[in-house]
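May I ask you for just one protein sequence along with its backbone structure tokens in two labelled lines?

_____
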Amino acid sequence: MSARNLDWLTARPIAHRGLHDEKRGVVENSIGAARAAIAAGYAIECDVQPSRDGDLVVFHDDTLERLTNASGRAADLDTGSLSKISLLGSSETIPAFSSFLAAIDGRVPLVVELKSDFNDDLAPARRLAKALAQYSGPVVIESFDPAPIAFLRAQGDALGIAHIPLGIVGEASYDLADWPMLSEERRVEMTHFLHYARTRPDFLSWNVADLPHAIPFLMRDGLRLPVTTWTVRSAAQAEAARHWADQIVFEGFAPNCD
């Protein structure tokens, strides 16, 4: 557990995958969505995953079908190929993480969620650390997978990211239907937060549908660590979440930044 001050993380609402708006042709995890969030004064959450050549791109899904006219796994294409694939309903393409960082340039806080296949491959975490080691803006790294967070925690000094807060994204249960890639051992570890001694998160991001819950309550009220909650989709849901979390990760409406 770190005693670092993370007031900046919870100072303003966090736009889930940027401030996207399908009706206006602003697609999630696009540079346009990041710029829209900056213009509105929101922090930004984004998803990163490795391409075939080991670089990082900003894209949520394992496969390309939902957000593009292409098909197949994003991880099976290199960054150059992915950067030529248009995002549906827009003039933008899948951004390389380096381009996404350059567009934000430290103007608002950035929450980077590292996607994972839960296969203990730590190369993406190492690549993410390299990308962020020299980034000068406010940024945190989070993941559902305890393994890369534990790795970054243990190797932070060597990787040059000891100054970057690390967090866990979590929810109340990890059933087989929604999480088929998890071993039973990891399912138990994540459900009961048994990785805490290895990950020692600086903050927690918790499913709003699972509030209240003992884990975020103990993190926030017991350890005095900030808790964000996802994905909040209305003002009423935001008001309910306020009692159990320090800030919302939102989409589909415009929360007040005050």
User: Anything to note?
Assistant: The CA atoms of residues 149 and 185 lie 17 Å apart. The beta strands are 14-16, 43-50, 56-58, 110-114, 139-143, 166-170, 203-207, 227-232, 247-250.
